[in-house]
Amino acid sequence: MDGFYRILEKAVSGEFLAVPEITVLLCPPDEAAEKALFDAAYQLKCSICGKVVNLRGLIEFSNICTRDCLYCGIRRSNPKPHRYTMSVNEIVESAVLAGEFGYGSVVLQSGERSDPEFVDMVEEILCRIKELPFELGITLSCGEESLETYQRWRRAGATRYLLRIESSDEALFRKIHPADAVYSERKAALRRLQAADFQTGSGVMIGLPGQSVEHLAADVDFFRQMDLDMIGMGPFLPQEDTPLGQQYPDLPGDAEKRLKLSLRMIAVTRLVLRDVNIAATTALQAIDPARGRERGILAGANVIMPNVGNVSRRKDYQLYNGKPSLDENSSEIREKLTASLAEIGEMPRFNEPGDPLHYSKRKLLKKISD
Ligand code: 5AD
Asked: What's the whole-model pTM score?
């Protein structure tokens, strides 16, 4: 097989990469090679998306969850977080704040529930946000639901949905989830989102116990095969109140290693998938508070999701330890972000929904083939 630089060249010129080649790209032989990988991915990001970053105001509107994922701080059997659901008014107020900030779109994220009361409530939130006097893109991230629920939420005005596969390797997926989380069902839920005409996003955690670089290369191949529009990935962060966090607490240096691996995953995903939206996630910032997300952008990501929810809720939405900006209000977050993006020569893209190019292409291709 070709060496690292030859494969990088192939990637830059848009040639198809087989999974073993993706594995090689994820393992640059030295620092110069790693820098070449990041630079190539960043240049591609700039030529596809420009030197701009799309912003989504993140509203973590409920931490009540029916799932018991072994890594997650808001898993149902963790008694520590005070469970809350924001009122519809509070959620709409946060969306208004996002609109006033010029974020152009919001992400509504919550624990997973499928009861009728919850489904109705989300529908109502969507309708209320759509009635606002400015255009706001809406992304949902509320877990696995039926096709009917996805269709209702789509009709009510959400256009994007995030549902991470967490690991595309079925055996590893099983190790980090309880028995009621079924790999094939999660994959089927992604298919339902596409059937309901959502711009569909997924992603994985990076540096999970038992995860190899081959697993990660297969994850990138999974994104490609699933024809996803958006990717959100971040380092696994042990959460002290969870079984996985207790079993595998961080040793010194582990977090930085995971951050580096996550940046490589962002770069390789950009090179392989090209025209998708890729988020520089909060988990990067949890490891490197000063520059984590900016490093993500410089490795090829083009989306950042600053929190616009009320500060008082954040301590109860700790999916993992070290979640940043716990006590910063939304306008402080906005100011800092604008300044730190300017430092790397990037600009926040205000007042635009920021749809991924991949989605419009996918729709056009479908129209032609129909
Ligand atoms: N470390 C890193 N990411 C986590 N998530 C949940 N718990 C953790 C953790 N301990 C991520 C999952 C989920 C997203 C909302 O947050 O990938 O899909």
From this structure: 0.96
